[in-house]
Amino acid sequence: MSLFTLLLISYLLGSIPTALFVSRQFFNIDIREYGSGNAGATNVYRVLGPKWGTFVMIVDTLKGVLAVQLAHLLPEFADTEMALQNVQTLLGLAAVLGHIFPIWADFRGGKGVATIFGMVLGISPITAVSCVTIFSLVLFLTRFVSLSSILAGISFPIFILVVFNVENPLYRVFAITVALLILIMHQKNIGRLLKGKEGKLPILKGRDRRREQQKK
Questions:
Q1: Which pTM does this prediction carry?
Q2: What are the structural domain ranges in the chain?
Q3: How far apart are CA 156 and CA 149, in angstroms?
């Protein structure tokens, strides 16, 4: 099997429109016409509830994990860790591209954060855990999924270039690219955050209400 074939498979795997499938099959709606208009886990969480939002997030993450595992079907690239990591990076990016521009859903997909996380989880679990820790901490403190995703994305190249000092040049470029991509994909969210109009995830509302009462 050739690298090109696996790249195509990874793209098609990433193109599986989980959010759209759930919204159409179980609710007879197009999730892209509701909420933020995004075909991702966060919008599903807000519009269809936490159960389906969690399901979409898990499946979209698995798309990234499975895509990088396809690299093991190319033994000629498994001679060195760096060569394997390079192929995994390419396959993972193909899946992310498929998620953002899915051929099965008129090329209108999600922002790719969950699939990127799955990709990193498959390549470098410790880095993925570090990033998800940042994400979880920011989400707990603010309830803004967008801000949590942005800061976790920015922390990714910091972990790769500084904390863990990964030597692979392609993976270092990939880390910087991911941070930039997440910033670009969240431009509207950044605008709403600056204007104070960004919606919060409906969790920990009681805690925030208590904080507001204490300020009065």
A1: 0.85
A2: 1-123, 125-216
A3: 11
